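Chapter summary example.
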Amino acid sequence: MGQDASRRANQGGRTLYDKVWDAHVVRSYDDGTDLIYIDRHLVHEISSPQAFSGLDMADRPLRRPNAHLAVADHAVPTHSRHLPLPPGQAARQVERLIGNTRKHGIRYIPMNDPRHGIVHVIGPELGFTLPGATLVCGDSHTSTHGAFGALAFGIGSSECECVFATQTLRLRRQKRMRVTVKGALKPGVAVKDVMLALIARIGVGGGVGHAIEFAGPAISAMAMEGRMTLCNMAIEAGARVGMIAPDKVTYDWVFARPLAPQGDNEAAARYAWRALASDADAVFDREVTLDASEIAPQVSWGTTPAETLPVTATIPDPASESDPVRRARMASSLAYMGLRPGMALRDIAIDHVFIGSCTNGRLDDLRGAARIVEGRRVAPGVSAIVVPGSASVRLAAEAEGLHRVFTEAGFEWRAAGCSMCVAMNGDSLKPGERCASTSNRNFEGRQGQGGRTHLMSPEMAAAAAITGRMTDVREMMR
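The structure predicted for these 478 residues follows.
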């Protein structure tokens, strides 16, 4: 344990983040950085080629092949999966990943494997994600895995190469923020609404430089799927890390997974994981409190997740904003989104609906959307797709008959993958088209050049598909 870690260990009052960090310090440096041991590394086809090339050019061996797990998810198509990939960039990326993993002895999950899916969905499904572990991936939404009490964060290609070669990273400890969510969610309000409300409040830069820990009774009441949604979008609030202390909900999920500790190791793991919770006297650098009972279904109106309002609201007027920078930002967002001040969010018509992504492509998400869709039809002129986050989710949904609910309503039922979230796999918007999306980002061009994205929960997206416009899902539940 490094000097800084030893000092903190003797102070008491440590947070969940500090406990996991301290347990992985290999060495501390005078500049305030620590060399951190990395337990797990998830690898996909987009960020890994440069890292593998650097490893090969330096003639370095991969230090721990069994600490890595690879899958292609971003570029793969979600339709016609039974056919070979057509010649092109996606085929080259997948072939390169297969070749690199074979060369270096890394486990690779093929596209036709029942374990295939989005990297941040299958990691937890397989038990590769574990409480108290350090986990990285060349993708910003690696924060998802913090829902299990793991210290998980996205890294760049050069850092991926460093993990391949040394299984360590030199990092600076983050400040700590605690977001306490009290109360209980009302019917029609989803976990996605909680996160969008938080980002609207603190801004996309509100968590910069901080590791966010989510706590409170509303968090304890969430299933693991909801917790993953919450931590997944911590990065959208500017935080590289989002975490939740493991509890019985966590243990029940993890120990049902194939790669989870077993036998005597399970008992030892439970004992160690119970000690991870932040100490009662732990001090955070910033505290934020939300009341879940006051949150309504949310819809983003602009081009950042912070530009979000309750579905019952109207589009804000930049002229009423005194800060010139914010005023210009709002005007730019409205121009790109093709909206006007004072317009009711519920008057916005949509062209497409996308239910899926590493944010909202899990079984509970599909169940929630199906409850709204059942017995109804997609509005004329609206294109709607459902993309399960993994093959496992797809099979489980089909076993429950959810695919029939969606297809009978007029949705397309797809294979697993990132799909329209990243628009690099054949699924994208055309310029000017508007999408009700369960993904995590609404930046300009995120779902296709000139495409307009409105972020919302699966239930809200389902309601929009049926009505053809932004709709308060609570009206469809009465």
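To summarize the output: The first strand starts at residue 25 and ends at 28.
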